[in-house]
């Protein structure tokens, strides 16, 4: 186990270093710099994925291995579990596919080495968050992830839009991080430890100080998770970032905030003493996040802003599953993270293809591009339908399971929440059908008609096809992807 974990991080850091060295060596042949960087990064992700696969195969019957580097209340502790493998696998799959896409997407820039380095560090930081066994280690990896994300949002640094969005992202996320850190400090002062396994018995009894610490931690991490009303950085970050980064930002980065809620709330605060207070509170924020995201998406002409608000709404669905405080609800939310990563990652890649072909994010300006490019019309149509939650795509199952788990609790709060969730799904159908109508069926706009729409590279189309195929396979064989989520939550909650 340890050797595969070492190989995982060594291969990721090694690939990042090799990308920089190869880029320096390739300055005399600029046309090969981006492809060379891409090949190295893709190879690095392949080794990381292989290592993760071997780690999953060596997990014991109880589904977790704890590695403590010292005997101390503040010692770094790593917990490799079914949950960490599940979430890390989502990150690696999405990073691998976006790395392939980026070779073509950034081919015009002539140099994508720094982009690949930052995404490799981002992936390793996400894996670090998932295997953290104490809050201090989790916070350190969280900050490493955030720093990589800041740089990726600002990648097009000559654009004022990117600079403005990054400043807003840094300020809001920085405040969130400080808030979470203060909550962690309060928790340490109260219990004398930050180890998540040791905290269980020490937080069994609610208190005012403990409630304040928990509120600060959840609110702090909630900024990166884009929970309303702490979501305002995300709609600006998406249009400014390159499309591969947007795919990662909505596909996995904001989902790591949801993972953190599951990781902390599941084993520590799922007892009756806490649920009576936390359940209605989290359910209210979940519904608020759904409505803010979906109602705002209705008003957007910029496709990437529309998708950003849609991602906020999807965070609300995930948070609603968490609010049940049951194995079924947590499992459904974890399953939804998988489905949302596939489909929203795909949508941002498609938005990037349109921008690459005709240079616009405006729905009005891209009207009718599907008539000029039928393959793009098919992918847009399938992706938009899948995002509305229709079968046979995977999101149908995770949304159904979230609603079913909430109804199973037989709480008036959660039953009302299910009704409001269904209302939000209907709202999302309106704007996704609008996207289909404009992109696929409308008459070509002046911009589309006046441009010679060439063919998108297979390196861009290929990852998109893989993502929609994975969503379709998930919908046809949901148990294959849902069962590991259930197992991961059972191990976390100690109910195996």
Distance between the termini: 22 Å
Query: If helices are DSSP runs of H or I spanning 4 or more residues, what is the number of helices?
Result: 20
Mean pLDDT, nearest integer? 91
Give me the secondary-structure category.
Answer: mainly alpha
Biggest sheet overview: 2 strands, antiparallel
- Helix amount, in percent? over 70%
| Cα-based radius of gyration, to the nearest Å | 22 Å
Low-confidence stretches: none
Tally of extended strands?
A: 2
Query: How do the helices and strands follow one another from N- to C-terminus?
Result: HHEEHHHHHHHHHHHHHHHHHH
Strand content: under 5%
Shape: globular
Largest beta sheet: strand ordering: 1-2
What's the short version?
This protein is mostly helical. Helix content is 77%, strand content 2%. Strands 1-2 form a two-stranded antiparallel ribbon.
How do the helices and strands line up, and which of them pair or pack?
Layout: H1 2-25, H2 33-57, E1 64-68, E2 77-81, H3 82-105, H4 113-131, H5 135-153, H6 160-191, H7 196-202, H8 208-224, H9 234-240, H10 243-268, H11 272-297, H12 303-322, H13 327-358, H14 369-372, H15 374-387, H16 394-409, H17 412-441, H18 446-450, H19 458-476, H20 478-493
Q: Could you describe the 3D structure shown?
A:
- The structure is a single chain.
- The protein is an all-alpha fold and 496 residues long.
- The protein has a domain of 227 residues.
- Helices cover 77% and strands 2% of the residues.
- The chain contains 20 helices and two strands.
- It has a two-stranded antiparallel ribbon with strand order 1-2.
- Helix 3 packs antiparallel against helix 4.
- The protein is globular, with a radius of gyration of 22 Å.
- The two termini are 22 Å apart.
- The model has no long low-confidence stretch (mean pLDDT 91).
